[in-house]
Each structure stands twice: as C-alpha cells, then as structure tokens.
Design goal:
4-stranded antiparallel beta sheet, mainly beta, 128 residues, 7-stranded mixed beta sheet, single chain, 1 helix
C-alpha cells in the first residue's frame, strides 16, 4: 500500500502561482511513477503531469505546458507540482497518483486507470 497526501492548494488570483506537494508513505517511493490529475466542477478527472520513478522525463497536458512543472524528490518521498500563470480554468481539485514501475509508461502515463493509488485531493481555485 502507498498512502498519498496532497497539500498546498488554495485560492489565488489569475496570473498567480501555487505549489502543490504530495507526500508518499508505505512503500519504496522511488519505485513508483507519479502523476498529477485534476477534476474541475462538472468535469471528468483529467491528466495534468507525470514523471517516471526516477527524476527525469516528465509529461504534461498541452494546456499546462510552460506553466506547470512536476518535480520529485525520492529522498523526501515527495512530488511537487509548481504552477504559475494560473488561469480560472485551472480551478479544480488536484490529485496525485502513483503506480508501480508500469510498462510502456511513455504511452500510458495519462490514463487515470493506470494508477493504483490516489490521494484525497487538494482544492485549487483561481479567481479572475
């Protein structure tokens, strides 16, 4: 079992910045690929960003490229999502998720069903 706890959400004005953090416990964090997803009001959960089990290659949905950065610290068992130039359409509950060393991750990272463990989410609200 892996336990994930997100933090860092809040209310921010458009154009502002926030950093979300996800703390993992329970298993060897460095064996898990990590993803960030979000679910806006009345919308399905969607992929935001993901990273392999070692720091390096990261993936982003098009709408956040250049604005969001995912980073992980395997020594601290955390994965962060640094968000800047926030827009009202970024308003959502943000979730981190983990999956144990998946095959073909480069082509599956954005599937919500790929991930076995999820946090409870943290609310991000961007006001216009």
């Amino acid at each position: 079992q892996v336990q994930l706890v997100e933090s860092g959400g809040g209310l921010v004005q458009a154009g502002g910045s926030l950093t979300l953090s996800c703390a993992a416990s329970g298993r060897t964090f460095s064996n898990y690929a990590m993803g960030w997803f979000r679910q806006g009001p009345g919308k399905e959960r969607e992929f935001v960003a993901a990273q392999y089990w070692v720091p390096g290659t990261a993936y982003y949905t098009d709408s956040v490229k250049g604005r969001f950065t995912i980073s992980r610290d395997n020594a601290r068992n955390t994965v962060d999502l640094h968000m800047k130039s926030l827009k009202p359409e970024d308003t959502a509950v943000y979730y981190c998720a983990a999956v144990y060393r998946p095959d073909y991750y480069s082509s599956t990272y954005y599937y919500t069903r790929l991930y076995d463990y999820w946090g409870q989410g943290t609310q991000v609200t961007v006001s216009s």
